[in-house]
Amino acid sequence: MHEMSVVESLVDQVRAHVPDGSEVIEIHLEVGALEHLDADIMQLAWESYILDSELAGAALIIERVPMGVRCGVCGQDYEPEDMACLICPNCGDVRPEVYRGKGIVLQCIEIEDGRPSTATMSEGKA
Q1: What CATH number should be reported for the domain holding residue 9?
Q2: Are residues 106 and 88 both part of a single domain?
Q3: Is the pTM for the entire model greater than 0.90?
Q4: Do 34 and 94 belong together in one domain?
Q5: In sequence order, what DSSP letters do the residues of 32-54 get, joined into one string?
Q6: Residues 20-78: pLDDT tens digits?
Q7: Nearest CA-CA partner of 67 in 98, 31, 103, 39
Q8: How many CB atoms lie within 10 A of CB 24?
Q9: Residue 117 burial by CB count (10 A; 0-12/13-18/19+): exposed, middle or buried?
Q10: Residue 72: what are its φ and ψ, rounded to 5°?
Q11: What is the pLDDT of residues 36-50, one digit of tens each?
Q12: What is the residue range of 73's domain?
């Protein structure tokens, strides 16, 4: 289950950014469509992983980021209906540049006092 390893990495990132003694309320995560992660499985993995930890009760909010593609020939931006078919709807070319929808980004950690602690990771796994 790929989702569990992502959740393990996410927990490590959260712990690295939260001051000792703070209560974590919510974690906001952006997940690109190309990551092929199931949000429901992520939620179950999160809940089971944090069950008996200092993060118990913290909510995981997942925002799915759709794939955005730009044609390498005509420059047309589009969101393909089928991620396996990246033919440009404008010129029919098949040399896409994916500019959105890949990677996992830890957007925000909301802690007890209500001040968000923001941590951003570039185009990689949490």
Answers
A1: 3.30.2320.50
A2: no
A3: no
A4: no
A5: EGGG---HHHHHHHHHHHHTTST
A6: 888 999 999 999 999 989 999 999 999 999 999 999 999 999 999 999 999 999 999 99
A7: 98
A8: 22
A9: middle
A10: -75, -10
A11: 899 999 999 999 999
A12: 67-100
